[in-house]
Amino acid sequence: MPPKKAKVQPKSTKQSEPSGKDNNEGPRRVIHWYRTDLRLHDSPSLAHALSLNPTALYCVWTWDPHYVYRARVGANRWQFLTDSQRNLSESLTSLNPTQKLLVVREAPQTVFPKLLKQWGITDVVFEKDTDAYARARDDAVVEICRQMDVRVTVVKGGRTLWDPDEIVKCNGGKPTMTITQLQAAGAKIGEVDRPLPAPTSLPDVGDTSLEGVEQSVPDQKPDFNEGGRQEGEKENSYGGGIAGPNGDFGVPTMEELGLGEATTPHRGGETLALEVLEKVIADEDFTGTFEKPKTAPTAFEPQSTCLTSPHLHFGTLSVHEFWWRVEAVLDKRRKEKKPVSEPPTSLHGQLLFRDMYFAAQAAQGYYFAQQASNSICRFIPWHLPSTHDISSSPIPNLITGSYTIDSPVAEQWFQRWKHGQTGFPWIDGLMRQLRTEGWIHHLGRHAVACFLTRGGCYIHWERGAEVFEELLLDHETACNSGNWMWLACVAFYSQFYRCYSPVAFGKKWDPEGAFIRKYVPELAALDKKYIYEPWKAPIADQRAAGVVVKGEGDVSGKGDSVQRDDNGSMVYPKPMFDFSERREICISGLKEAYAVGLHGDDSRVLDGSWKALFKDEGEGPTRGQKGGIGGDAGEEDVDKSAGIKQEQMTPRGKKRERGQGTLDSAFKKTRK
DNA sequence: TTGATCGTTGATGGT
DNA sequence: CACCATCAACGATCA
Question: Nearest nucleotide by C1' from A483 CA?
């Protein structure tokens, strides 16, 4: 447990004006609505709830069908979330035996009116959340409270260093696109809030009876997580009523979710989060001189970074707590004249980037997570573009969650990437680590994201973002979409000629290939000379290592089981393309798209006429005059194209392989 | 206006 | 091992 906290500043200035009841007198029956703050230490919203001196305190988590069915959440993240909830619940109970986390199994928009009435609630307190869906959800709850004459207080700034909306305001109303802009805006707001101490006692919970309260069972379709559920298992977390099958507001089990055991070794909960923090802070050299680009993405047991990102996401670790604990180390080292690292590469720098993405997202809303209608996102005619709902309401033109297969080859590349079967061991090792452990190093994310988009497959960054959304423990839309746009060179970053090699990049940190030997066991015995390029190993060397390099990989399974051929030899796939050739194709594609210069909110992107601006032979679904995003699929178009004929696509690919000259001329195309 | 500089983390082939 | 120029060359910022 951390030592005593810094002096507490009153948080009153950080709250929204409460709405609803003006009357402060009388007994207060308060709901503290938990969402992104599954902790006791430094919870400004919990502190505010306690400052009301409630006669009854309800610690509520609403089990939101939006998260269960419409977000992509894999088994590992469910485990992390539910572990965090159980841990918080135990902490609440330890402060007051009547207390626990009350998991309410219904959408907040429908259940709040019932709870407010049933439990005689006078106040609702929760932490501000600037995610696009969260804003709409919270507006609805605030409105419900207003109508029912219940006071509601939205406490700002607990999730990020500064309130994202205030950052945007201080950045001229624009999304923060560089770390310098973020720092300047932050400086205008002022010092990061100091952390608050954990409460030492809690008031009792009130009556939690739900007698006569009917559960509104949510629509289970569409279920974006259907594919991840166990064979034959059904998602049933709403099956036992509002208070769950035992009627005790318990945390849903993996079984109820229709999920198998989590495979990740990284577990959730504030107790573990604080242990991790203590360990990081205790290593003063590490904390004081941390430089992200110098940490090895190949390191495992232990990893080269802190693994705190999932805890920041779920709020089991306070970002303010983290900031000030690091600052204390830096301060000490400065006084001792020891070297300290600086943003953007330092630990503080990492937290600043997170705030940069949150503020950028706050300014863009739903569109931050997609290309179409996103004014900061460059338009590139990527393979596997999303389908859109032009008339989605109230926000038009949102992506639907499905995509067009404009190229069967690209779809095959995507599946091989997703399952760690690309034939590039560095990429496959990372993707398998992601799937089994739910976490990979930041630079590993760079490697696989570059490979999928601008540095290999030329596949839409939204496809990659969706896979990360499902598999990452630390997934949060702001950072995920932001980083994907960064790596795809469509926003935040534009030096697309700086391209990560799937061979050289990993080798730089791990020439022996220890990382690959762990995560790609087929190659464990291969000589280090071939470990990053096994297709170059002579047959005799392959045989000696007990592996055969052949075929196109198995994308049916989870990508973490070893394939064998009829002779019992392990099989590892051949590389799915020639990387340097693909690199050239991608760079020329990016160069052309940059010259065309469209952004996601351009009318030509939305009506499909963007095609007329691209050369037909350019990479991606560029043929014809109109079609693709938001437009009518022309006759020649490759929409609906699971159907697109293999024979149409393959020759295009072959033509490229031979005709590098054509591409070089495209590459030299002048700008504007 | 324009040119120089810099930007979280490239690869290669030098010294 | 640290540092450098080259490769080809984006865009925001600032003098």
Answer: B8
User: What are the beta bridge partners of residue A61?
Assistant: A103
CB A159 within 8 A of CB A37: yes
Place of tokens 């159907």: A643
Is any atom of strand C within 7 angstroms of residue A665's beta carbon?
no
Cβ–Cβ < 8 Å for A613, A598: yes
CA A666 to mean position of chain CA atoms = 35
């099989």: which residue's tokens?
A571
Q: What is the C-alpha to C-alpha distance for residues A487 and A206, in angstroms, rounded to an integer? A: 50
Answer yes or no: is A580 CB < 7 A from strand C.
no
Task: Give CA–CA dist A628/A351, Å, rounded.
Answer: 37
Cβ of A671 near strand C (under 7 Å)? The reply is: yes
The pLDDT of residue A472: 98
Nucleotide minimizing C1' to CA distance for residue A590: C10
- Do A269 and A88 form a contact (C-beta atoms < 8 A)? yes
DSSP string across A575-642: PSS-HHHHHHHHHHHHHHHHHHT-BTT-HHHHHSGGGGGS-TTSSSS--SSS-STTSPPPTT--TTGG
Within 7 Å of a protein beta carbon, the nucleotides of strand C are 8-13
pLDDT at A603 over 80: yes
Q: Which nucleotide is nearest to A294 (CA to C1')?
A: B9
What's the pLDDT score for residue A229?
84
Q: pTM for the full model?
A: 0.92
- Residues A615-620 have a mean pLDDT of 92
- What whole-number distance in Å separates Cα of residue A469 and Cα of residue A40? 27
With contact defined as beta carbons under 8 Å apart, do A426 and A532 qualify? yes
Q: Which residues, by CB, come closer than 7 Å to strand B?
A: A 178-180, 292-293, 344-345, 349-350, 353, 442-443, 446, 483, 486, 492-495, 497-501, 503-505, 508
pLDDT at position A657, please?
Answer: 27
A496 CB and strand C closer than 7 A? yes
Closest protein residue to C7 (Cα–C1'): A497
Does the CB of A509 fall within 7 Å of any strand C atom? no
Tell me the pLDDT tens digit for each residue of A269-323: 999 999 999 999 999 999 999 999 999 999 998 999 999 999 999 999 999 999 9
Distance CA A490 to C1' B15 in A: 37
> pLDDT for A128-145, tens place per residue?
999 999 999 999 999 999
CB A599 within 8 A of CB A475: no
What's the mean per-residue pLDDT of chain A?
A: 89
Nucleotide nearest A508, CA–C1', reads B11
